């Protein structure tokens, strides 16, 4: 949509001043000032016209407008009620033909929802005022992509929450701190491989696509940022629930320098039981968690499950 105008630095600061908004470290707020960066995010997300995209932490609306410019429909989840109330006004002023639907209700009774429609009745923007970590349902059609400048203080929990709760998400493009991006995309055996790497790998393949400098944000953060692309894939075949696999991941990295037979002793009940489970999974019990991929963690979880007294053998379970 060429008639959409994006926000510039002066307008972003003016919007914030008029609304009495001051970016807070508590909410991890760093607003993107640069339209070129916004368009890069949208471009790398590979969104297509008519697609429904969920955005977490829209803030003052820089990325929201970039997504609307690409002719996608946006459901924006914003924890800050002041910013959530401001966003529909900003979008209506920058996207011709949109107006608030006075009759729009909400399918999510825990949150306030505002819907902006075009003249044909298409819901172009849905603003949900809610903490992203508590969202269990979104109004309207299910989203197929997550595109967001994630709040830095909760970026990993939010990403994992949305991958878990919304299995219609086929892909994502998120901006996070550069070191977090490295962890999300790290392969087994690398220095940055850890809990986020293994858990994200359960849902999707992840790769870092670009570095974003500090100067494009207001306020400028103390660290660089990066874009991470995620593409949904089938989770590893496992005869145990995902929670059991993630419990193994957590235990393996709680003391990452320990060998698995020691790191998993508490979870297994003893070092001997942990060693048996690791061997049953086809791994060396002297290996460390940083060398094991998510498939290996799933096999260990299955072995631990099968070894519990009175526990039926693992079967096919939902992810």
TrEMBL record:
Record EC number: 2.1.1.182
PROSITE patterns reported for this sequence: RRNA_A_DIMETH, SAM_RNA_A_N6_MT
Residue ranges occupied by any Ribosomal RNA adenine methylase transferase N-terminal domain in the UniProt entry: 37-234
Binding site for S-adenosyl-L-methionine: 30, 32, 57, 78, 131, 149
Keywords: Cytoplasm, Methyltransferase, RNA-binding, rRNA processing, S-adenosyl-L-methionine, Transferase
Localisation: Cytoplasm
Listed GO MF terms: 16S rRNA (adenine(1518)-N(6)/adenine(1519)-N(6))-dimethyltransferase activity; RNA binding
Catalyzed reactions per annotation: adenosine(1518)/adenosine(1519) in 16S rRNA + 4 S-adenosyl-L-methionine = N(6)-dimethyladenosine(1518)/N(6)-dimethyladenosine(1519) in 16S rRNA + 4 S-adenosyl-L-homocysteine + 4 H(+)
Matching SMART domains: rADc
Pfam family, one: RrnaAD
InterPro entries to which the protein is assigned, alphabetical: KsgA/Erm (IPR001737), rRNA_Ade_diMease-like_C (IPR023165), rRNA_Ade_Mease_Trfase_CS (IPR020596), rRNA_Ade_methylase_Trfase_N (IPR020598), rRNA_adenine_dimethylase (IPR011530), SAM-dependent_MTases_sf (IPR029063)
Enzyme class per UniProt: transferase
GO cellular component: cytosol
Function: Specifically dimethylates two adjacent adenosines (A1518 and A1519) in the loop of a conserved hairpin near the 3'-end of 16S rRNA in the 30S particle. May play a critical role in biogenesis of 30S subunits.
Annotated family: Belongs to the class I-like SAM-binding methyltransferase superfamily. rRNA adenine N(6)-methyltransferase family. RsmA subfamily.
NCBIfam families: ksgA
Identification of the protein by name: Ribosomal RNA small subunit methyltransferase A
The organism's taxonomic lineage, starting at the top: Bacteria, Bacillati, Actinomycetota, Actinomycetes, Micrococcales
Gene that encodes it: rsmA
């Amino acid at each position: 949509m060429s008639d959409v105008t994006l926000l510039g630095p002066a307008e972003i600061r003016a919007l914030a001043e008029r609304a009495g908004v001051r970016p807070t470290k508590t909410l991890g707020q760093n607003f993107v000032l640069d339209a070129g960066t916004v368009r890069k995010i949208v471009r790398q997300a590979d969104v297509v016209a008519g697609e429904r995209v969920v955005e977490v932490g829209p803030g003052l609306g820089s990325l929201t407008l970039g997504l609307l410019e690409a002719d996608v429909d946006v459901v924006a989840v914003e924890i800050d009620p002041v910013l959530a109330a401001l966003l529909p006004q900003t979008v209506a002023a920058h996207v011709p033909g949109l107006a608030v639907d006075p009759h729009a209700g909400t399918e999510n009774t825990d949150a306030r929802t505002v819907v902006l429609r075009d003249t044909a009745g298409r819901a172009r923007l849905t603003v949900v005022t809610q903490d992203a970590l508590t969202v269990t349902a979104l109004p309207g059609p299910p989203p197929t992509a997550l595109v967001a400048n994630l709040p830095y203080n909760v970026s990993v929990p939010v990403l994992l929450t949305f991958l878990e709760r919304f299995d219609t998400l086929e892909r994502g493009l998120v901006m996070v701190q550069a070191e977090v991006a490295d962890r999300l995309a790290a392969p087994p055996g690398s220095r940055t491989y850890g809990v986020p790497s293994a858990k994200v790998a359960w849902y999707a393949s992840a790769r870092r696509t670009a570095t974003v400098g500090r100067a494009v944000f207001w306020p400028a953060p103390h660290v660089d940022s990066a874009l991470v692309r995620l593409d949904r894939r089938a989770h590893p075949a496992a005869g145990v629930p995902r929670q059991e696999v993630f419990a193994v991941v957590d235990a393996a990295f709680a003391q990452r320098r320990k060998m698995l037979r020691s790191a998993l002793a508490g979870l297994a009940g003893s070092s001997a039981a942990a060693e048996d489970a690791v061997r049953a999974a086809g791994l060396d019990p002297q290996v460390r968690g940083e060398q094991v991929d998510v498939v290996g963690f799933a096999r260990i979880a299955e072995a631990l499950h099968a070894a519990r007294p009175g526990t039926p053998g693992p079967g096919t379970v939902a992810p």
